[in-house]
Amino acid sequence: MQPINLETEVTRLRTLGSDFEDLHSDVLHLRPKPGADARQKITTAIVTTNQLVGRALERLEALAGSQYTAVPGSRPSLEAMVSVVHAATTAAGGLAAALSENPAGGVPYSGSSTNQDTKYKTASSALPEHLTEAAHQLNLAFTGCYYLARSIPRDLQHHSGQQHAVTAVKLSAGQYETLVRLSEGGGRVYTGTRHNYSRATDGNGRTVNQATLRVLTKHALVEVDTSTSLFTGQRLVVTEAGRQAIAAYEPSASPVRPAAPASTTTVRRTR
After folding, report:
1. Residue 138: which residues within 8 A CB-CB, separation 6 or more?
2. N or C: more exposed end of the chain, with fewer CB within 10 A?
3. CA 75 to chain CA centroid, nearest Å
4. Strand pairing partners for 223?
5. In terms of pTM, does the model score above 0.70?
6. Which residues does residue 192 pair with via DSSP β-bridges, in sequence order?
7. Which residues contact residue 63 at a Cβ distance below 8 angstroms, ignoring those fewer than 6 apart?
């Protein structure tokens, strides 16, 4: 894992998105004439697209090998970055297809003027289709970059808030012991409403204190799997925040009681 400056990475993604957006506009408004004009304009667009593909791959590599991968929500963002690369390479492929439809120019082969005319007519109808599809893919690419530039700071802020919440929760010895039991063997709750269940047990069938359970669920250290009925028992699951709370737990120091004063005994002398 290579630590990187994620704020700088977000700035680079915004810049990449802006460059994709500019290229999208250029390709969208391309109306080249078949022949030399189309060849020059499409070639320029292909070169620019491939350069942006390279930059997108660099951003993917940087994010996938960084500390960001430890942040909840990073996987969808990395998948979105892969989608940006895919859209950009597809756009390059569409532009290459347009180039292949375009007449290469030069002196026609002897006796092939009819074929040359057919080539120009085919290109006139095929070029707009390929260019429109390439522009669509570039639209997906710049949209993905802007999405990432928004989602990464949001993921980091949410993760920071979760970490702060974990450190802010001061578990009592009983709450810590219950959380450990649930993390090791799970538990179940039966009938009731949110944060107020009629009965709860750990994996060994031991009763879980209701007040303790309310504290753990309130701070999102434990969550309830609602995929099954409360009447048959829903699973209690310790969250990642709960596991962090277990790791961060520090037992309160037992108060030091002052030593009892030494007893004094008065010895009377008898005469």
Report:
1. 20, 21, 23, 24, 27, 49, 87, 88, 91
2. C
3. 4
4. 237
5. no
6. 197
7. 4, 9, 69, 74, 77, 78, 81
